[in-house]
Structure formats: structure tokens, C-alpha cells
């Protein structure tokens, strides 16, 4: 806070008591530069396997591996450095936006490296009488109690497998595409809160509501 300046002008009251008048100048605040803390996620190094090739072109990065190829443009707020088989993501400037982008793009780039080398998968479970799924060519066909089956074409780059007619496994190298397709499948029959029927992710916990109680006699 800024230093206060006073000007003293004393006057005595009729009682003989002297009171000091101290007019206070305008109060101001000093702006200080606050350094943003480094993201705990962003400062973690990314391990690059030997079967993954990286290509940099300005703010553009391309990752190629045995399962496929992914690319992404990252902002000027961050810098990507490579040291042999390790990638490090650093902030280029000390701003709030750079702090936000630091952890985000470290996670996105790590997902690219893991995706093209190992891949990802997401499982969905169908719960309900008569609910089942099957593959017909490149289409996922769902029987969910509607008057007609639901047919969903599988996007390019994804693989869908059905086990025991009630378990759908979506796999691929692009984690974002897997999540989007799995969310579209789940959207047809989200788990209802009374009996838990519907489509849910493997390991998803569905909170159930208590049904209406009958009248007491």
C-alpha cells in the first residue's frame, strides 16, 4: 500500500481539548508482478519410445508410430524441447494463459505419443432386458428397446469389438476420437437412476434413486 501523507492543523475546542485534524491523501495500491507457479503436470517429462518418430515445424508437431500418425499445433505460450528420448514442455512467457496451456498441452502431447505406440481403449456395458450389440460389417448395431435397431458407422482409425453381446470395446490410437464415439454410443441409452438400465462405461458408478413408496395402510 502507498505511504500516507499528513498535514497537521490543530484547533482547540471550547472545552480546552485540542484535536488534530489530519486530512488523508488518496489511498493507492502498488501493482506488483506475480510470478505464476509451474504446473505440476506440465513439468513432468514425456518418455518417447524408440519406435516413435517426432517432427517439428515451427509450432507444429507430428508424432508417427506403429499404430498411426497424429499431429497438432501448439500455442506460442509454450516451448517443446527434446533431449534424446525425453520431451520437455516449458512455458515461453510468465502469464496466466501460459500456465494454463503448460499442463494442458503436456497431457495432449503425451496422449499422442502413447496413442501411436500403445493405443487406447474404452469399454461400454449394456444393462437391460433384451439390450445387446453386434457388428455388421463396419457398423455397430445396437438393440436398445426401440422399435428399430440403432446403426452406427465406425469412424476411420477406430476398431470396435463386441464381447458376450453386451460389452462394446472401442480401441484406436486417437484418444479424443475414442472418447467422442463412446460418448455417442452411451447417449442412446444413458443409465437411468432407478434400476440402472442403459449403457454405461466399464467401472462407472451409477447413483440410484429410491422409487416412490406405496401408500401406507
From TrEMBL:
GO annotation (BP), single: translation
Q: Which InterPro entries match?
A: Ribosomal_uL6-like, Ribosomal_uL6-like_a/b-dom_sf, Ribosomal_uL6_a/b-dom, Ribosomal_uL6_bac-type, Ribosomal_uL6_CS
A Gene Ontology molecular function term of the record: rRNA binding
Alphabetical list of Gene3D superfamilies matching this protein: Ribosomal protein L6, alpha-beta domain (3.90.930.12)
Q: Where is the signal peptide?
A: none
User: Can you cite an annotated GO cellular component?
Assistant: ribonucleoprotein complex
Write down the superkingdom of origin.
Eukaryota
Q: Which PROSITE patterns match?
A: RIBOSOMAL_L6_1 (PS00525)
Q: Which residues form the Large ribosomal subunit protein uL6 alpha-beta domain?
A: 48-119, 127-201
Keywords, alphabetical: Ribonucleoprotein, Ribosomal protein, RNA-binding, rRNA-binding
Family of the protein in this entry: Belongs to the universal ribosomal protein uL6 family.
* Protein's name in the database: Large ribosomal subunit protein uL6c
Q: In which organism is this protein found? A: Rhynchospora pubera
